[in-house]
Amino acid sequence: MPYDETVVKNTSLVCQSEYATLQDGTRLAVSTWFDNTDIKSSAKRPAVLINTRYWRAYSFNDDRPEFQPNYPLASYLYIHGYVLVVADMRGTGASFGSRKTELSSQETEDIGELIDWISQQPWCDGRVATTGTSYTAGSTLISLLTAPSALKLGVCRAPDFDGHRHLIAPGGIVNQWFIDEWGEYTAAMDNNDAEGLLAVGRMMPPEGGLLGVRPVDTDADGSLLASAVKEHKGNFNLSGSEDGFLFIDQMVFEKPIELFDPRSRERFEQSQIPVVIRCGWHDAGTQLGALSMFATFNCPMHIVIDPFNHVCASKADPLQAGDETHVQELPSDTAMSLTVKSLDRIFKEEQGGQNADTAPGSRGQEPDSIVEYYTLGKNCWNTTRQWPPAGIQMQRWYLSDGHRLVSNTPTSTEGCDHYKVDPSATTGLNNRWFAQSYKPILFPDRREEDKKLLVYDTAPLMADVEITGHPVVRLFIRSSATDGQFFVYLETIEPDGRVRLLTDGQLRGIHRKVSDETPPYKMFGPYHSLKKEDAQPLIPGEVAEITFDLFPISILINKGQRLRLAIAGADKDVFKPILGCESPEITVERNGLYASYIDIPAMQKR
Questions:
Q1: For the chain, which terminal residue's Cβ has fewer other Cβ atoms within 10 angstroms, N or C?
Q2: What secondary structure letter does DSSP report for 376?
Q3: Hey, is 568 helix, strand or coil?
Q4: Of residues 15 and 363, which shows the higher confidence score?
Q5: Is residue 277 domain-shared with residue 350, that is, in the same domain?
Q6: Are the beta carbons of 413 and 399 closer than 8 angstroms?
Q7: Quick one: 563 and 508 in the same domain?
Q8: Could you write out the three-class secondary structure of 301-362?
Q9: CA 311, CA 140: separation in Å to the nearest integer?
Q10: CA 499 → CA 33, 141, 419, 445, 565, distances in Å?
């Protein structure tokens, strides 16, 4: 069997594909999953819609429904009372049209029309929810901007609230790996190139012999599909666009829709459609985006930050037992089960049902906003109605002599450390960024890798420390270059010497100015505009302040362990080097005049 029988309990589902025609005449390919045994049943059900740019359905040599990637979810939803509908977005898959950017304002309007179309189908009871993971989580969020009356809920995993800051160019440093890999992947899809798609390595060859995207049922000779793919030739593609991310306000292509734009935020808040967002602590910057949304938007929002990977298939825990190749897999229906629980809270309880599930991390939408978060190491769930949670105090650790982190303020007027950036430094191929290609997140021992970095350690902790929130680092540096990349890693050293990465952050040197403008949404550290007008080249030999927040984390560090601050100037497997600044010599000041430190958010004993 291609799928676990405990998940795929219904084997009579069939995928029906057709075109839905939008008001401007563009035809979108839509696949609806029905039970073949009661396809003519008069019973109506709510619809669950996924708007995707990743092919709504595949064409195979061996054309069996169970080979379709969406079959397990469709089956799981159907046995719980819902019909899955998956649509190729404009300019993708078998849909007509072209794309000037990703998640555009045009896509937003398309989704609104599509929701109305679905709600009027004879099998639908007039109610629709949107759902998705990663890109389709983004489409779930923008569906809330349309606010059609049929849309009752959005449930998604790992959306990129601010694609620029949280994925493409965090801290202004270009994520070259993602741009190249995702660009190749989507280009192959847009060209209906099955061989090219598999060559990217983002997916395993599926059973059935992959031919390409699935045409609609009435397209017997494939002529409609060929015409649609021809219209995709003019699509925007992320590959080759890295120069467009140097400054946030100087993109050389059309910007995607920004949920935090005042007009979008107003529409989002006016809709008051509840949304459930789940993401992991180590999944790119998705958790930071979700918490920023929670702290910014005035609408019913349930945020769940868990210890799982991008697709909720395995656990991601720096402190879990085992070697660096160990992965703790989750039950194959975990993500589907959580989605159904959220759907049931809206679609069944509003009809008087008693389906509340109050298990941590699986509660449905609350009447108001709430954050549930998992504390690693402590292995427990917590609930808060504010972020950061109450009871957090910053513990300040200063960089000191002997590569130490100490709590005492430096008094000496002298003190610094010299470091030549090693361009071979890396966080590997299973980090928070590679999670976006659905890889498991691993935490290998960093003892050897840290020999390439500048590190500072605390003494063994005298008591347990629960870190919850956003660490903030402030460094005073001198550099031999006019620009540079500054990566900071917060790590823990176990009594046996093993070093594990807890969380990290980064900033490009020219973006170091702390802006006094109001940020576009709630941020939890110094605000860097990343705009061209605020760019400040480093002056070789002069002191520059580099301050930024690390990605949020909640983790318990036990007594006897040590904390480590590690500084790097490269992460070669992910981020594009800066031409001419690949290996500068930097000096980190650590004295009474220029006191470099990290503030760590510690939960006070309750």
A1: C
A2: B
A3: strand
A4: 15
A5: yes
A6: no
A7: yes
A8: EEEEEECECCCCCEECCCCCCCCCCCCCECCCCHHHHHHHHHHHHHHCHHHCCCCCCCCCCC
A9: 16
A10: 48, 38, 20, 5, 11
User: Is residue 29 within a helix (H) or strand (E), and if so which, with residue range?
Assistant: strand 27-35
- Identify whether residues 289 and 231 lie together within a single domain: yes
472 and 579 co-located in one domain? yes
DSSP for 162-230 reads THIIIIISGGG---HHHHHHHHHHHHHHHTT-HHHHHHHTSSPPPTT-EEEEPPPTT-TTSHHHHHHHH
Q: Tell me, what CATH number does 71's domain have?
A: 3.40.50.1820
Please report, for the domain that includes residue 585, its CATH number: 2.60.120.260
Instruction: State the Cα–Cα distance between residues 325 and 428, nearest whole angstrom.
Output: 12
Residue 5 lies in a domain: no
Distance (Å, whole) CA 72 – CA 78: 10
Amino acid at 261: D
Read off the pLDDT of residues 190-231 as tens digits, 9 standing for 90 and up: 999 999 999 988 887 888 799 999 999 999 999 999 999 999
Instruction: Note whether residue 302 is domain-resident.
Output: yes
Complete DSSP assignment for 434-462: GGGGTPPP-----TTGGGGSEEEEPPPPS
Q: How far apart are CA 120 and CA 113, in angstroms?
A: 11
Task: Take residue 506 and report the two structure tokens written for it.
Answer: 């980064």
Q: What is the pLDDT of residue 325?
A: 77
Q: Does residue 536 sit in the same domain as residue 557?
A: yes
The rounded distance, in Å, linking the Cα atoms of 425 and 402 is 22
Q: Is the predicted pLDDT of residue 351 greater than 90, yes or no?
A: no
Q: Which domain holds residue 474?
A: 392-603
Residues taking part in catalysis: 134, 283, 310
Show which of 346, 362, 384 is a domain's final residue.
384
Three-state secondary structure call for residue 85: strand
Which residue's structure tokens are 């005049």? 593
One domain, residues 265 and 339? yes
542-545 contacts, C-beta under 8 A, 24 or more apart: 542/478, 543/476, 543/477, 543/478, 543/589, 543/594, 544/476, 544/477, 544/478, 544/479, 544/509, 544/512, 545/474, 545/475, 545/476, 545/512, 545/514
List pLDDT tens digits, range 393-446. 999 999 999 999 999 999 999 999 999 999 999 999 999 999 998 889 999 999
Of 451, 485, 511, 476, the C-alpha closest to 582 is: 485
Average pLDDT of span 328-341: 95
Report how far residue 183's alpha carbon sits from residue 238's, in angstroms, rounded to the nearest whole number. Answer: 5
Indicate the burial class of 41 (C-beta count within 10 angstroms; 0-12, 13-18, 19 or more): exposed
List the structure tokens of 567: 């500084």
The yes-or-no verdict on residue 5 having pLDDT over 80 is no
7 inside domain: no
Q: What 3-state DSSP class applies to 485?
A: strand
Count of residues for the chain? 606
Mean pLDDT of the chain: 93
